[in-house]
Amino acid sequence: xxxxxxxxxxxxxxxxxxxxxxxxxxxxxxxxxxxxxxxxxxxxxxxxxxxxxxxxxxxxxxxxxxxxxxxxxxxxxxxxxxxxxxxxxxxxxxxxxxxxxxxxxxxxxxxxxxxxxxxxxxxxxxxxxxxxxxxxxxxxxxxxxxxxxxxxxxxxxxxxxxxxxxxxxxxxxxxxxxxxxxxxxxxxxxxxxxxxxxxxxxxxxxxxxxxxxxxxxxxxxxxxxxxxxxxxxxxxxxxxxxxxxxxxxxxxxxxxxxxxxxxxxxxxxxxxxxxxxxxxxxxxxxxxxxxxxxxxxxxxxxxxxxxxxxxxxxxxxxxxxxxxxxxxxxxxxxxxxxxxxxxxxxxxxxxxxxxxxxxxxxxxxxxxxxxxxxxxxxxxxxxxxxxxxxxxxxxxxxxxxxxxxxxxxxxxxxxxxxxxxxxxxxxxxxxxxxxxxxxxxxxxxxxxxxxxxxxxxxxxxxxxxxxxxxxxxxxxxxxxxxxxxxxxxxxxxxxxxxxxxxxxxxxxxxxxxxxxxxxxxxxxxxxxxxxxxxxx
Length: 536
Description:
single chain, two-stranded antiparallel ribbon, 20 helices, 6 strands, disordered C terminus
């Protein structure tokens, strides 16, 4: 085993050659690291490596092939009388749906009619910070609220109900057969477009462009629902339902249906008697109240459930992970030099990085398969392990963006009083000023390191649970995890390297928070802008 560790962990010996910048990436305040960067990288990698020992000792006691990883402890919140009354209230649900549709319409109207200044308009702050970052955090740590408040779904249901009342028995859904080979590939393509809009498109924070993009996507979503059926398109083609559903696997709550017979009519054949119907809102909506559960569960355990991965599902997870890395990589001195010296357009990185990540992932999964003594199809092992990468994506997303939410997210306070930028003061908050000092640079750096290491430790744990299910005995499962452990360590080092880099914008490193300047781009110009650079 020692000989096996050498070629797997040898790349870590190259860490000391990594440059040692004085500004950690992701916040606009200058901060000199008290220790050389390579010590942090070694320490983080060592922490992930050390976590493997207790994880293997604890979880290795399970019998190989045993499906115990998905038999996690859970508590039904609907068993508590007060919570049951509140959480099942039709008034609450209707209020959330009305609020969601109202915000959807407000984004469109403020984008089309409001002042075309990202710092004065409601749409950019709400879309890029409150919805994209804030709802993503809520989904990953609490639960899939998007399944209840998706405005495209709500408006389609309302339109369909109206059409049925007018005499159309079949409603708006043609229910054409959805090609099985498509799987999640429509969502993969749409997520790639979304990452391009977020990071490359120069008008990503222009209110009118946001409104036009929302309306264009609305036509696509409603068209997919009409042709293939609402639930089918939400599961396969509506990229945000797919993404938030993926993040919800990490969350500490789940919805569950007790009666497996309901799953027979589900468009996704989601559950069996043994595994249960979990986080299928189609079945949950059809179930009787006594057959519904809203469970509190340990975080991340939903990622270990042995569920089938549809075509394109593996690449979707990789694209999500690579998209987050691409967002940070764009601002590093390395990328700036490559773009300048080789004249590389940003779209090259957008396409190349997921392919590099995918090739690396398949390579390490193949090594894991060989170390475990298995000779089956690589696709089976790649699909089995892929959800273990989700904690890495969640950890990096939180580490990279939480200061953006805490600082620039404060702008929503003034926007609720003056959403169009017309000088209104509806609630007396139009003069609210953002406090950029809510978090300090040192705290941000250490919290980012802690979050990334914690996410990778969870990923190591999940990968080991999955290996115990794939291989015949604990010894083979343990050996198979050496390549996956090396992959997690390399992901850790790469993530920390990105957030440690000085932010580079147009060949200039951002070292201090600039003063207000009307000629400077808004902090919402792109989601990848520094969380604490500008004070509007």
